[in-house]
Amino acid sequence: MSRSKVRQIFHILMDEFGEQGWWPGRSRLEVIVGAILTQNTAWKNVEKALENLGYAGLLPSSDEEDALEYARRYLKLGREGLARLIKPAGFFNQKAEYLLNFMEFFVGEGGFAGLGRLRTETLRKKLLSVKGIGRETADSILLYAFERPVFVVDAYTLRIFSRHDMDFGNYEDARRLVEDAFSDLDEGERVRVFNEFHALLVRVGKDYCRKHNPLCSACPLNSMD
DNA sequence: AACCAGGAGAGAG
DNA sequence: CTCTCTCATGGT
């Protein structure tokens, strides 16, 4: 029932905004670092922090480079130095700790080679066990860094769905709703759809669904109801 | 000048 | 399980 509605929302947004090209980043490790840094933080501020990390030699310029070597540099640098570099992203003390937690986990699991062998559900549970990686960050990492068919729910998603009849307010329910809505597609197609869908929901959320910028009347999704 | 951004954890009830 | 509080910089 709401299955077709979910697809309708996706196609309206796709027609309106087109491909968003997420996730910005030159390597998978940079995608993960960005996912942690952007927790409750404007992406503009994250870019400044990423720039600092890049100059400090903490971001691979491509996936051809050994991510494990970069991960060890975080551990060598430590919380103090790391916090100073990511200061523009806010919550720098927490996020420095979170980044170190992930890098320690990453090295211990054998980097992308080791983690890449795990089944999606197993990998998700392992990511969630890292202090500082919650549901949204874990799913962002699964989708954008590991290219697993996982839909990423965020505050915009719940807000937008709520304004169009589908009032869940529950992260897992909203996630399964979208994943089930596209369950007929093969894995590669779902990765593409979930990638664009989440980016599009953030886009329309920023433009029309913000609290201090309530342009609901101009939202392209109004053509549904 | 309050309000919020591509959240998460800890604690209370 | 659902609130509530904290963490902090930078843009509107």
Keywords:
Endonuclease III, domain 1; 62% helix; Endonuclease Iii, domain 2; mainly alpha; DNA-binding; 225 residues; 2 domains
Under CATH, the homologous superfamily of the largest domain reads Hypothetical protein, domain 2
Radius of gyration: 18 Å
Structural category = mainly alpha
Major sheet description:
none
Q: Give me the number of helical elements.
A: 11
The name CATH uses for the topology of the largest domain is Endonuclease III, domain 1
Percent of residues in helices: 55-70%
What does this structure look like?
The chain is an all-alpha fold. It folds into two domains: 2-21 and 152-223, Endonuclease Iii, domain 2 (Orthogonal Bundle), CATH 1.10.1670; 28-144, Endonuclease III, domain 1 (Orthogonal Bundle). Helix content is 62%, strand content 0%. It contains eleven helices and no strands. Helix 7 (120-128) packs across helix 8. The protein is globular, with a radius of gyration of 18 Å. The model has no long low-confidence stretch (mean pLDDT 95). It binds a DNA duplex (13 and 12 nucleotides) through helix 2, helix 3, helix 5, helix 8 and helix 11.
Question: How would you briefly describe this protein structure?
Answer:
This protein is mainly alpha-helical. It has two domains: 92 residues, Endonuclease Iii, domain 2 (Orthogonal Bundle), CATH 1.10.1670; 117 residues, Hypothetical protein, domain 2 (Endonuclease III, domain 1, Orthogonal Bundle), CATH 1.10.340. The chain is built from eleven helices and no strands.
